[in-house]
Design brief:
mainly alpha
Length: 178
């Protein structure tokens, strides 16, 4: 039979896991803020494209509008990916430290990415989304890159090869042993 003081301390220790709720709520609020900001950016971007089809527009201006629009689209995708990371983080922390999300486990429409079984599972899922953010950032950089020497083009090709390798390795890690 456990000592009453030991039982009290163990109950306190077990209840202390609930402090994680602050991280869950903060991550959820940050995710909602990122979804909001990316959506507002998308709406503004579309509103600026109204004049893109204007035949009187100077071709140089149209080309500049095209380049800035592609950059804005990449930034919007980046914002949504960051919001997704924060959402997965909030859901994962909740499932690991607070309680299972019964609505997600019982719903056949729920994605497996939202069902977190362990801390390693959470880290693996976050790593994949962060890898996607890095790929989007690389794409954003290469869209605006000016190639002044053939070496610049070679550097970009090397970066693309490394991205392909990282994607391959991330999928190899997921393969189940046969």
């Amino acid at each position: 039979m456990a000592n009453p003081l030991e039982r009290l301390f163990e109950n306190f220790l077990w209840s202390s896991r609930l402090v994680v709720i602050t991280a869950v709520l903060s991550s959820l609020l940050a995710a909602l803020a990122m979804f909001y900001m990316a959506t507002v950016d998308a709406i503004y971007m579309v509103s600026h494209l109204v004049h893109y089809a204007d035949p009187a527009m100077d071709p140089g201006v149209r080309s500049e509008l095209h380049a800035t629009t592609v950059t804005h689209i990449v930034e919007i995708v980046d914002g949504y990916l960051l919001a997704t990371v924060l959402l997965i983080f909030a859901l994962g922390l909740y499932e690991l430290f607070i309680s299972k999300i019964n609505a997600a486990e019982g719903d056949q429409n729920s994605s497996n990415i939202l069902l977190i079984k362990s801390l390693d599972d959470l880290k693996a899922r976050l790593a994949k989304v962060i890898l996607m953010i890095l790929i989007v950032k690389f794409f954003e950089y290469t869209v605006s890159m000016e190639f002044s020497t053939p070496l610049d083009l070679l550097y970009m090709a090397g970066g693309i090869a490394l991205i392909g390798l990282s994607l391959y390795l991330s999928h190899v890690g997921d393969a189940e042993p046969h």
